[in-house]
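Hi all, long-time lurker, first post. I run a small reading group and we've been trying to get comfortable going from sequence to structure in the token notation. Rather than ask abstract questions, I figured I'd post a concrete chain and ask someone more experienced to write out its structure so we can walk through it together at our next meeting. Sequence below, copied exactly:
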Amino acid sequence: MTDRTAISFPDESRSELDRVLEDLMARARQVQVTQERLRSLLKANQLVVQQLDLPVLLGRIVEAAVELVGAEYGALGVVSPRGDLEQFIHVGMSDAQVAAVGHLPEGHGLLGALIEDPVAIRLDHLSHDPRSTGFPAAHPAMDSFLGVPVRVRDEVYGNLYLSNQKSGRFSAEDEQLVTALAATAGIAIENARLFSETRIRQAWSATSSEVTAAMLSAEDGNAVEVLASRVVSLADAAIVCVLLPTPDRTVLAVATARGLDDDIVDGTLKADSESIVHGVLEGGQPRLIDGADEVGLTLPSGRRLGPAMVVPLVTAGRAKGVLLVARLAGARRYSTTDLTMAADFAGQASLAMELYSARADQQRMSLLEDRGRIARDLHDHVIQQLFATGLELSSVARALPAGVEAERIEDSISRLDASIAQIRTVIFALDGLDGVSVRLSLIDLVNELSVGLTRTPALTFSGPVDLMVTDSLARDVLAVAREGLSNAVRHASAEHTALDLSVLGGSVVVEVTDDGVGCSEGGRRSGLANLEHRAARRGGTLDFDSNGSGTRLRWSVPTTARDAAGPDERRVPK
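-- Answer (accepted) --
Happy to help. Here is the structure in token form:
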């Protein structure tokens, strides 16, 4: 019997139902795939927006884009103000492949087309596009291509480049997803840049306070060196130079340098009226330049300098110098924000330098006033009292009969006269300014060599020594004094040593005496021969007498002698 409860459908209706069910399942799968891709987009956006460190953020953007559309290779090219690629962050190529390829893309061909016209480009085959310029020999093969601009507000910050989609071609949906990611990336980049600028501004501001404090607190510090040292690390620079004008307006002096080769950087820099540095110095406006070699500064090691900032050091409305901040060739360029912060910093530092200089002048004037007061007190009170005491002792000595007591008083009077002469020497030193004089130089020399003697040598001056003994003559006098005192230290074993410089009767006389054991006959005489040569060159004489009771060295030259010093002799040391 036939089962009456069995249900059957016509063949045509069954086929239609199968098609509907298959279509529903396909749509469901499509919805599922779309949901998964949207979840991937949300995940990528989340990874991007969580990062505020700009270099790390750029790498994450590329990684997220590659994962989002299943690409084998990806890159983010950052566009410079000049229209080429300033940075190129890539994913997918190994270090060995990168080394084999050589230099990274510079923004030509298809990459350059996206820079010139920032509209998304999607290609199934790169080689079929006439804008493609091909790849270097060691470059990995790339076929399908998707390029999308990354905008930060109305500015094109860079472009996302993706290649070799795993299915063989990029779809319109891939383009939409990457475009959406690029929009989020633009916001994240803007936030990261603002965050980075805030941190950099804080660093510049903090360093400005440190520099000001260092300049105003350092007693002997060099304000220019403090400025340059801080800027090297702050600006991530290879070298920082402070350039100051010279009497020749076409030449700038490198006052100080910090960074690479800072100890051997050339001390002068040519800057004609058309040069960038001269323009900054005259106009007082900071400048960004692509290469520091444009200003004529090169490193002795041969390494080329690249992006740089030239910032004026302005005080009282006038540029007193220039701050040159440079990186090596190929390094990241400085931005206008960097320039603004450097200019603000230089302005505050210039003010601190001005205050430092003013304070140093004030301290110098205060010191000179104190010296003058002490000198007046010594002259008006101490010397007068010693002189009066000497006169009183002289009257007592005349009242005494000849004998031991009278001789002791005469010795005391002689010592008082010597003390008065030494005090007058101190008064001359206190009244002296910062200029180098033979009097001050001999005082320093005596203090230097007195360490090897039992007592500090007695130093006396007679006549206008500072007026008549200058330049190369002063150098000869110092050489004579040093040789005489050094002989006393090395050979004499003396208890008393004396140095006298006098300008009397048209002659300059240096006399060094001691009460030591004298010099041996077989001792070296090269030093004395040198002094004799110095005297003969000026038409003078050298007398040297040494025996068991002491040594006397007398060097005498006429004050009218021609200055015959050689060009290689040094200046009088302080």
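A couple of things your group might point at:
The first helix runs from residue 11 to 49.
The radius of gyration is 43 Å.
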